[in-house]
Amino acid sequence: MMKNKLFLLTVCTLVLVSCGCEKKRELPPVDPPAFQRYSQDNTLNSKILRTVVNFSVYYPASYMTDLEKRYPVVYMLHGYGDDNNSWNGSWLHANSKIDSWTEKGLGEMIYVFPQGFKTYYCNRYDGSFSYMDMFVDELIPFIDNKLRTIPDKQHRAITGYSMGGFGAAALPEKHPELFIASAPLSMSVRTDWQYKEESQDGWNSQWGKIFGGFGASGDARITEYYKQHCPLHYFNAENKEALSTVHWYLICGDNEENLLYANDELHCIMRDNGYAHEYRVVDGGHSSSVWMPALDEVLPMFDYYMNGGNLWAPEDASGFVPSTLETEADGAFLSPAYKEKGTGTLLFVSHDGLDQESLKDLMAVAKGSSDQAAFALLPCDIGQKPLTEWMAEWEARYPGEKRYVLGIEAGAAPALALSSNTFARSFYLNPVVGDHFNVSEDQEIYFAGTDLDAHYRDMDRLYCACKGGKAAFEYRIVNGKSGAPLYNLDRSLQSILSYITY
Question: Can you tell me the mean pLDDT for 78-83?
């Protein structure tokens, strides 16, 4: 009996289904997945490397609404031991910087963050891991095929920090046909003499296995393969025509343990060989405190060359604005506090033939806005008589508690030739340092210039002397303006004073 009932129930159910009487269940609507502007850990299966290469992408806000639009591309390379997400990790926040500049009018661009392993973005000398070939022959075509890029040199730029800075130089060096602009930040590179002296473990782990000379020492480390990739050997007269099709921007902090030696030398080599480029030396070490502010220039620069943006210009368009300074009859300036006390700090302004108006303008900048400090600004034209005679003459007229010096161009060498304890602090603008000068660890030295100043080799020599002599120093290179020497001196002096004021 029970079997008959089950049979009848089954038959009834089949009849109901067959006649379409069963009601279809309505599913709730499903929203499409939200557009993720920052897409992490995308993959490229590289045949050249025989492994997976990760990359992250930061898309323009309009990417999914303006489906016909194509965009320039910026490749952003990470440092040694980091990965494709490090530009937006604990210390670096590139996406936030991009957004803040976009609100100011920065043109939209696609940002690609590739995994660089520990390759310095170059092929290994023995062919065992050809990363640069992968980047050029696989990654760039893959990005141009999958994303709505503008796939040409005029709309492709590259930057990177530390090891990524080396890659941001090496890739356009070897392939200038691919990039319109490059901005290495605190490039991880050393001079030949530094590589020759580096510890064996340090050399082997980072450089020997990539550029050859593994286990070697001294001159044997500077292999021909290394020279073919190192900027210090590559920015020569022979390569100038090709490499000058790329717009170069270099920056490094003056507190770097080792890297400013080579970055400064590269600036000098580029100047020696007539390469147009931007160069900055800023306050800071090997950290995000240098790289994130650098993007304030780098992003507008890329936008300028790729989108025609107007947030950056190769030279600062603003001109020098002279200031008025009420001096004594003998040309000295005495602060109100100095006049009240009758003594204070003596700042000797050492120069060689600056005209009086230019000198007064620069002294006005040196004066700043403080009336609280007791100081005297005392001009010393070394073209008329030696600095020491000027000092004796001024000190007989104006007593002082301590001595400072501001050496302008050729006025720097006489100050540096004096004993290290002559001045409590020394300031130098675009200094000409001469062959013999004193730097010791008990000195405080502040010096600055622009990337267009004539005495770039002298500034590099002064930096090396300060670093080697363990002096307390601050070194700045700021944006210069062609054919405006007084403007450039003013910019240099302001960069020093802004640090001291801070």
Answer: 97
